[in-house]
Design a protein that fits this description.
The chain contains 10 helices and no strands. The protein has helices at 22-32, 36-55, 61-73, 87-95, 100-107, 111-114, 121-142, 152-160, 170-180, 184-195. The site of one fe (ii) ion has 7 residues, from loops.
């Protein structure tokens, strides 16, 4: 599924700092996303974004929430309007005058699909976490212990197996790492350490 957005400008810079409350975001998710696995995916990516913003970027709480919000909403339209992914959520957030950086991050979470280049750190880390989060979660589901005791080498072995989580595009993972200037091992270890906390 691929929708070229054919735009490079998103939102309005005058809306910088405008966010939804956590309650408003959860309301939107509950209205739009009936698929629990998809909701969990967005919560997982959101948590990784929040933790990365706090621990690696040393951002304040308001900025951490902006990163988290981008994660929570990046696939919000996928469940009901896959052919409009991610135009629908972008237009919704623009109509609500939401911070342009959050909208841009959502618009660039799949540069090969939507035709929007990740530019900011928020853009790049959303792209990094998106597919790797899913692969690590798929691995947790096949382990009796789930995330407990999960090792980096186990995840890397699965990553090399093309048939495992075959819908996770390995080329895109490498592309995302390069763009963000981060190391695969460090990102996988970060996901292993954090993602099991999301239920
Ligand atoms: Fe997506
Ligand atoms: Fe996603």
């Amino acid at each position: 599924m691929s929708l070229q957005l054919n735009r490079t400008e998103f939102g309005n810079t005058a809306n910088a700092g405008n966010v939804l409350s956590k309650e408003e975001v959860m309301q939107l998710l509950n209205d739009w996303v009936k698929n629990e696995r998809l909701q969990l995916h967005m919560k997982q990516v959101a948590y990784l974004m929040k933790c990365w913003a706090a621990e690696k970027e040393q951002l304040n709480e308001a900025d951490q929430w902006r990163w988290e919000m981008a994660g929570l909403l990046h696939d919000a339209d996928w469940d009901q309007w896959p052919e409009q992914h991610c135009r629908k959520i972008i237009e919704e957030l623009e109509a609500r005058n939401i911070d342009a950086e959050i909208i841009r991050a959502i618009a660039s979470h799949g540069p090969n699909h939507f035709g929007v280049e990740p530019v900011t750190k928020m853009d790049k880390m959303l792209y990094v976490f998106d597919e790797l989060s899913g692969l690590v979660h798929a691995y947790s589901l096949m382990r009796p212990e789930g995330y407990a005791g999960m090792e980096l080498k186990g995840v890397k072995k699965r990553l090399k197996e093309k048939s495992f989580a075959a819908n996770v595009n390995r080329d895109e993972i490498n592309d995302a790492m390069q763009r963000a200037g981060v190391e695969l091992d460090a990102i996988i270890s970060f996901i292993i350490a954090k993602q099991g906390e999301v239920v």
